[in-house]
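Amino acids appear as letters; backbone shape is given numerically. Here is one record.
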Amino acid sequence: MRCAKRIYCLFVDALLLSFCMVITSSCRQPYQVKEVTRHPEPIVIQGPLVSSIHGEPWLRVRIDGDINKATIHCDGSLWLGPATQDQQVHKDARLFISPVTITTETANRARQNIHTGGFILIDGNGDALRWALKQIQIQPPGRAQALAYGNNLFPGKLICTPSQAAGNLATDVSRFDLVNHVPLESYLPGVLEHELYASWDAASYRAQAIAARSYALFERGLHSHRAYDIESTVASQVYGGLASRAKAIEAVRLTRGQVLVYNDRVLPAYYSSCSGGIGQDAAKVFPGVVDILPLQGDPHGRWGSKSKNYHWEPFTRDKNSLIRHLAAWGRANNHPIGSISSIKSIDITGRNRAGRPTEFTVTDEAGREFSLSAEWFRFACNYDDTGLPDVASNKRLKSSFVQIRVVGDLVQFYNGRGMGHGVGLCQWGMQEMSQAGYSEESILTFYYRGASIKRIY
């Protein structure tokens, strides 16, 4: 999760509903004196109660999405059949020669406009079978074996389930998502191996294991209504299946069941690559997320200063090009800035208590003001879409911790600091603290002030 590129990975139904409720609660009918309508309280997104977790949970990780073909390998053969709620092979499952290629029945027969939601299974011998199931579960012949997809091996089982857009319950029977169902402790080494450098210290790995476990449990509690809990990309935290790095495996083993806790709940332990010296408030980045002490931005001092992104070089953007990006993002996200056609100024109009920007206001030549949260502004500046001019890698906003001025036909970005959203743990700062001799507990309680570590299973 070095840089959360898609904030809407958390904009599931609960978040969308919270937006609507916030808007509703701020609207009052004028001159209404006889009867006061009580508006519902906004939904608050928070971690699960510690008491609700009994033993090691399983996690559903979407490792690929919106596809119509997947080839799964395993030594010798694989079990395929209807999905089950546990690790048992379904009584109607069948053994197929590996590899097995899975395509959607509707994708193969689209010309006939047939929509049964079934799958075509082609085994290693080339034999094909049409199976009219909504979901297909794939398991290795033995639990100690892993399933190969792409260049990675995955523990647990894989399920092909109808395509589900992030934050949307609508399904597409002609395409599917591939979801890895995996025990949490088997999942975590594959996160650490992709989130941290191999040379980093053992204490960093242990701290990251506790934060990543806490974050995964938080995500799991949010998404019980859909077919997956978490993404395998920077939209959540990067996961590459089975890990081979001993340091990652050992860190997970030594911290088994340990999570960050605050007010008897598992903490939403967000983290990013580099905070640039000042943390961001979670509530300013992820709408609806509970605004509690451990998730409020604090000064981080020089921890993380060894990162090349602690400070970054100033750059300029063509104003007209930037206008196009801001407007396109606004139209795509139903924001008023979608109508912008000129820029007079861009100002920081909100900061958290530690001084990090939380809001930018773009003013056009007509005096209209468009306010965006700091992260929305970053995403709008970096927005990619068909027909838009490409944004060079050295002119993309690495974080929203930056100052801006408009000079003629140019927009200057300067004093840029950090990489990612800046909430919670700073990974580069974590490593520097580890090198200085701090334990994982000291590191985590520094970045999540007021939280504590607890073993919950």
Remarks:
- The radius of gyration is 24 Å.
- The first strand starts at residue 58 and ends at 67.
- The first helix runs from residue 13 to 25.
- The chain has ten helices and 24 strands.
